From TrEMBL:
Native source organism of the sequence: Dinoponera quadriceps
InterPro entries linked to this entry: C-N_Hydrolase, C-N_Hydrolase_sf, Nit1/2_C-N_Hydrolase, UPF0012_CS
Record keywords: Hydrolase
The protein's name in its UniProt record: Nitrilase homolog 1
Pfam families: CN_hydrolase
Amino acid sequence: MRRTWPVIVHSCVLRYCSKHPARRCISTMTNPLIAVCQMRSISDKVKNLEVVTSLAIEAKRRSAAIAFFPEACDYLADNKKDIVAMAEPLSGQTVASYKEIASKNDIWLSLGGIHEASPDAQKIYNTHILINNEGQLVATYRKIHLFDMDNKDTGVRLMESDYVLRGTEIVPPVLTPIGKLALSICYDMRFPELSLTLRNMGAQILTYPSAFTYQTGAAHWEVMLRARAVENQCYVVAAAQTGAHNKKRTSWGHAMIVDPWGAVVAQCAEKTGIATAEIDLELLEKVRKNMPCEEHRRTDLYSKMK
């Protein structure tokens, strides 16, 4: 008998009034709804896929147009050998299963980043993929900033470059049912140059699917996500891994959605589940109009900062 994994759902459907950005209002549900998902991946692909399936079904039940899943939603192994050996090409069975979930439930899926096999037998790509509601792969982004940490004082060693190849392209935002969606992954959020480039390419929603370490998450997770939202006047969607994956790895969690004013409008607790919020592009345009930062950028000077 196939095991059904329980899903603990944490939902928040709040938005901020355009006339009074600091005042919370109950949603009128006139705008598209999204679901940010949180899970605890392990080394078992089948069990992880069951969780993704359950969360996608729940997101659809709550009328979400897109469900956002975290980095390593396919699996999270505890050693380099298994990480590389378990990777699949985008034409593999795992992505095929994601496509089936999307088409069967008539929902878009943001899955980032999955472990993509590469021509280099020793390394893989960390890849964020976007699948539409017809089960078609519409965008692929390979992580360009790799997280390397070898701290002798704390004993934390996470060297992504040991087994991951750097991406070489910033992918233009994709037109989706919720607006123009930009793809990034986790550590990318520490580089505002990337988010600004994506904003200049037309982004309305920035995404940071993550498996953020517990220590750095406690200190930096929320403040950086809110900063990326404020400085770019974009929605920010950050799906997250949570809890202990193995003896070596624990993730911070706190998946969230931030609006263009920098307000956290939806957030998961510390367990597997989803949080939902509307994407109000009228609010986004009002924020940009009332605070016209783009008109004041000194791009004539920034080019000299190298």
